[in-house]
Amino acid sequence: LNPDRFLRRELPTLLRRSAEKLAEVVGADSEDVVFVPNISHGVNAVLRSMDLQEGDEVLCMNSTYPGVFNTLRHICYMTQEVVELKVVDVKLPLESYESLIQQLAAAITPNTRVAVLDHITSAAALVLPLDKLIPLFQKRGIPVLVDGANAPGQVPLDLRQLKPDFYVGTCNKWLFGSKSSSFLYVDKEHQSMVRPVVTSLSYNQGFIEEFAVQGTKDESNYLTICTAIDFYQNLGYNRVCAHNKSLIDWASSYLASLWGTEALLPPWQRAPFASAIRLPIQWPVKANGEPLTADEQCQVCCFVMDILLDYYQLATKVIPIEGSLYVRISAQIYNERADFERLGVAIQGLTNCSSFIEMFSTMRQLSIAMCIILDECVLLIVLSLQALTILPAIAVTREVGLAVLSLYLITALFSVTYAFLYTLRECCPCINALQRHGSKFFYVLHIGLIATTVATISILLEPFLSGVDFSEYCLTNALDHNLSSTGCLKLQGYTVVALMTLTLEVGLSVYMLVLGRRISKKHAVEYARLVREKSLSDAELPSVVRGNNSFQKKTGKATHGTTAEVI
Prior knowledge:
567 residues, alpha/beta, disordered C terminus, pyridoxal phosphate, transmembrane helix, PyrdxlP-dep_Trfase_major
């Protein structure tokens, strides 16, 4: 129960125990395995430890995970671009593994310094033949860094047999580990070269020690690895594999048949537990026929994913591949056929729209309407409370109270009209102009109501602040005109109640200003959307069609940007 003892003495032992357990699963010696928070840390540790010189080349594929690709781009940028990033443009599906090997072999030059390969690609779920690719590079003296984020737990792994120079993998994807529980394998030949991203107290104390001590951090995530592996082994790999593979095979066939499309990869190329299915949505192009930029592609994919998550409670990955939109599906032991049937129905619902403009408009209107309806309900409740707070003042001093009530009624009528502009926009052509300028009147009316209410409060406070006995004041002041049959004692009580309720009314009016500001922002967004949609034609936007669409071929531009050479 001593935390200091645990951190200093017990934790290092427990961490190495986790590393030993993990090393057994991935087929490696425990002294070759260290923990890193994620794949990005591991990749950065390896690449930043390399002494890249002018003229060197770093080779990768166009399927490289964007986070890893950005690291490669940054390293080339840091070297003032004297190091070239060469991207091999691999078309999917593969004709054969042999054709892939030949294409990568042709990309190797005497300047190739390191090759960065995926074990299983993130987007397409393509399994690379590492048993053939790693020797291809190593025979030429080129070290290989493998991004194995999606491999541990999905495919049997034996690093002693594969013999990569560097291998980065995760435990949280398919091994049931917690977040931030990844590992880095480094061949003994390179361990003296590789340094962690963070240099700390264990500098120059050896490979394991340097990665173990990288400043103060929470390492409990690594301690879950033993339990996660035990859980996986108790389930049995064969049992997990049988369930996941049969489910993903069925889902791929079912969705492709339902949508009238096809899976990107044949079973012998793709990962056991994942698959990419083409969506029945034609890939968008600009009005002039040019393809979308990488950022624009990401926006379209994120939009479709947001719709699936927000309106159908489905989490999946939508990605652009070979000129088409694909959805990458995965199967784990907690999934069942009903999950993929819901996805199929959801995508069909999206493709019922005749164009992207209709799909964007429909979903955006639904989202805005739900938010504004909530604000409308809140506004009605607050207005009702305001009416109740004014009534006691009328009972005490009718003239002033009726003046406040009259201003309140005008303010309430305009507030309701203004708040319901979105709902009423189809009924009146002047609504759009009111959406733009109504906020000014909204603020003026509510500020006027606040000022009038404060003035009324000052009138009602006068008997208490004048220093005269309230009964004497009652006899000489107009306060008793409304309640001539009521004694001054009761009138005093009514006045106190009126003061309290009017003070509450001021608070409610201030809240109405805040609520009005929120509503006006939403109206501004909605008005801008309407103007934008009127200025656009369907010809400028990609059409969404159902059925079996042909692929739109790429124009040879780099998938990840313009800083890399695509070959």
